[in-house]
UniProtKB/TrEMBL annotation:
Keywords for the protein's UniProt record, in alphabetical order: Cell membrane, Electron transport, Heme, Iron, Membrane, Metal-binding, Transmembrane, Transmembrane helix, Transport
Subcellular location: Cell membrane
UniProt domain Cytochrome b561 bacterial/Ni-hydrogenase: residue ranges: 10-179
Membrane-spanning parts: 20-39, 51-72, 84-103, 146-167
Species assigned in the record: Roseovarius nanhaiticus
Lineage: Bacteria, Pseudomonadati, Pseudomonadota, Alphaproteobacteria, Rhodobacterales
Protein name in UniProt: Cytochrome b561
């Protein structure tokens, strides 16, 4: 039976499912954003990928909250980060967490203050407002930019894990998250 909770040596099964499951979903989310940015309006591929962007974004928002609660419940027994590079890695993880919360939040806030309302999986969440509420819409001006910053941080994060830790230093950091150590 694999260990569910985290330990000093590795992340437990629940943290690993959150990490790799959400990594796949984020890849799909960035793909839809990239198609939205790169392809012309009315393009069939752009439309198809864009059709799931708000729903998947709201799902990721719910998942990151659950993952954060699980991370806090395990905070005292997670693998440690020592030295300057370790502290930089920890700060990088915190920045990724912050953007994983802020990026969907600003867009959901804009939906709550918008005239079209917002439904999630067919369940009405925010009713349509009679007129746009400016202060609720304003932070979403930065939604796309912050989303791209998150994508860059994640690329750097994956490169550090695979190139630096796994291929150059061979220090077992990647195995803490794959569970194969
Ligand atoms: C973690 C979740 C999310 C990520 C990583 C993300 C990422 C992005 C990115 C990178 C763009 C820019 C696309 C471009 O340059 O054309 C974008 C645009 C957009 N997203 Fe998201 N998004 C997320 C969640 C959401 C949610 C929950 C909603 C709706 C409730 C939403 C609605 C939109 C809309 C309407 C746009 C086009 C207008 C704009 O750029 O603000 N997104 N998203
Ligand atoms: C190929 C892609 C990826 C690889 C190889 C990878 C690798 C890793 C590894 C090895 C760790 C443990 C690092 C340590 O203990 O110091 C980790 C942790 C972490 N990763 Fe990734 N990662 C990838 C994708 C992602 C994505 C897409 C996200 C978020 C959008 C993400 C967010 C995090 C966070 C927040 C942590 C801290 C631990 C936690 O709370 O889950 N990673 N990753």
């Amino acid at each position: 039976m694999p260990q569910l909770t985290d330990s000093q040596d590795r992340y437990g099964l629940i943290s690993r499912i959150f990490h790799w499951g959400m990594a796949l979903l984020f890849a799909a989310q960035f793909l839809s954003a990239a198609a939205h940015w790169a392809l012309p309006r009315e393009h069939a591929v752009r439309e198809a990928l864009w059709s799931y962007h708000p729903t998947l974004g709201a799902t990721l928002f719910l998942l990151v909250l659950l993952r954060g609660v699980w991370g806090l419940a395990n905070i005292g027994r997670r693998p440690g980060h020592s030295g300057l590079l370790g502290r930089a890695a920890f700060a990088g993880h915190l920045a990724i967490y912050a953007l994983m919360v802020i990026v969907p939040s600003v867009r959901l806030l804009a939906a709550a203050g918008g005239t079209r309302g917002f439904s999630y999986l067919g369940i009405p969440i925010f009713p349509a407002q009679p007129a746009e509420i400016a202060w609720m819409r304003a932070p979403a001006e930065w939604h796309g930019e912050m989303g791209w910053i998150l994508a860059l941080l994640v690329l750097g994060h994956a490169a550090m894990a695979i190139l630096w830790h796994h291929l150059i230093k061979r220090d077992g950091t990647l195995q803490r998250m794959t569970g194969s150590a």
